[in-house]
Records
---
Amino acid sequence: MLDHRVEAPVIRDRVPVYSQTFPRTARSAGPSRRAASTVLTAWALPDLVDDARLILDELVANAADHAQGTSIRVTITRTARGRVRLAVIDMDRKRPVLRTVTANDEGGRGLRLVDELSDRWGVDPLPWGKRVWAELSVTP
């Protein structure tokens, strides 16, 4: 059985950060969603919880389906720019593609959902993989 306790957020460079490694499986979406709920509630940002949970669900599912390696890293960062950045880091350099889908397609809508729910999203290449991230605005 996997241990999915939510690790406490830490402060790096005056920016609150939550980070945890999960197995690269679709089952890691559940603990990632719970982590988003816990962390954003602790940061007094309950209005972001629903969108953050859906975004992480899609990013984790994409990594589980398309990446390599046995683990992924999920991070939630409250940036200095008044945003929350949700990210999934995996060990595959292949960039995700925002696809055009038709009504008959059974998949391929994950990044469309991320695009719709987030203020912006992107991919940071890493020497051994990539970080796929999405940002949500923190309303004052």
---
Amino acid sequence: MVKPLVKPEFYTYADYYAWPDSIRGELIGGEFYNMTPAPSSTHQNVAGILYGQLLFFFRDTRYRAYMAPFDVRLQEPGQEEGAERDVVQPDVAVCERSKLDERGCRGAPEWIIEVLSPSTRKKDLTLKRELYERHRVPLYWLVSPSERNFTALCLGPDGQYVSSGAVSAKGRLPVLEHPGLQIDWDWVFSD
């Protein structure tokens, strides 16, 4: 007799890793979030140009820049490897080299950038914001192609994100958290 397939109370990274490559998604709190359909060409252009600028800037530092699909496994204290319930694929992630392995980044990246789209906007603004804050991701950017702006959330001393609001993304703007880095927003939003 064949056993019926039963969804567990929550999924873990071990479950996630065993799935076929054709299944693309994220785990937040052990709940699966599908990542299809593929992002729009505008979304990909914005993420790709941001990634390219960061890849070049961080090339000879202790950090590396990555672009989705790239697994970020966020562990709770004392949680065994494979038991993670939070596995995300940010549009762009900057990670310390010491946290990298062949499967992606293990632990909180230094910086995460999510490019907002109609299908992911709510999740990026709520679930992921709460998740990244809880796991102490120092810098979280939300980039809006439709509004041509971005919001930078910086982790404050109390462990809460602080933001000065949306910034118009024009020209070259410095990234204060990484001296010497400037983002060329005119290139990011070039058509």
---
Amino acid sequence: MIVEDLTKNIKSKYKNKQAKHKLNNWMKGYLQERIEFKSFQYNIAIKHINAAYTSQICSNCGYFLGKRSTSNIFHCPSCDKGVNVHYNSAMNIKNRFNDNEIKLNTNYLVIRSLLLDRNKRMLEFKTEPSKTLVDV
């Protein structure tokens, strides 16, 4: 089973310590506990992954910085696909398992830089003229 690490603290814009504490102790602790219990009960191995930016990547083409609409639809400007935001994030978490460059403890800024580089290469490849035989 591949899951995002739910034990990390949320970086909050709130300055109030009580608000930060409440945000970090919401249902994620209970959810993490239940996932671990059920996986132990049914002898299922858990693999934690770094979930940074998984909600902003298109699960279809890999384009970074897609848009989320108010109707919970993730829209990719690159491949022009629309998909449920939760499904999109889940597929990206699944795909992150096979990503050799992004580890569990990789800093989010490093991940952002890596994803932007991938975007750049993808867009360059997409706009590259096809190589055909010309006047041989």
